[in-house]
# Entry
Amino acid sequence: MKYSPTYVDSVVSDAFRKYSSSSDAQIEHALLQETILKFLPSDKTLPILDAGCGTGWLARELSRRGYAVSACDLSPDFIATLKKNFPQIPASIADLSQNLSYSPNYFASVILNMVGHDLKDLSLSLKNLQIITRFDGKLILTIANPYYSYPVGRWKRGLLGRLLFRKPILKLLSYNFFQKNERLHLWNKTIPSYFYTLPEYIQSALKAGYSLENFEEITAPNDSSKFDRQYQLYRFPMILLLVFKKNS
# Structure
């Protein structure tokens, strides 16, 4: 099925806010934050960009820790709320596929946190981010693992599982099918989501002028008795971290 979605800011922001306030999001945020912090510069005065910041949760946490963080997002609603609640964080509306207003070679670290699947043109967006990354600066990229996450991976329980009160299990559809066919899907039935393969993420960054420095799976260290994000991340590497360095 081909979709022709229209970006509606209120619909997108409401859906993300609802998820961001959920317990699953808090579990995911804690793991992402812990992992990302390991790759930030020890000098907290160096400029950092939270690109595609969404609700701004990561920018807020970094600011609270004393980092010189700026934030940008396509959503005017998100940026207005971030400016109102955290005026100390420089925040601006930005389409990553367009020329960005930041100075070239400015940011020591650019974070693209769980945003890749939101980008219609991944390659162009990474090229634009490369321009504003300083030489030897970092691109910290976290992505939904395309081998296990939606649309390839879907948690299903089935009728028997429901009757027996079993937890859902992860069903994997054909990775190659999504690679070779329609790349656009609707997350939560409302939000456009683009499927990229892992090689496409890596090659797009390399062609943009970065080199790969680190590659990790983000998993939960402990199991959960409930079916929640911790339960999922304990069993499967649902999230990947890739750290790139801008070539000099």
Notes: The first helix runs from residue 9 to 20.
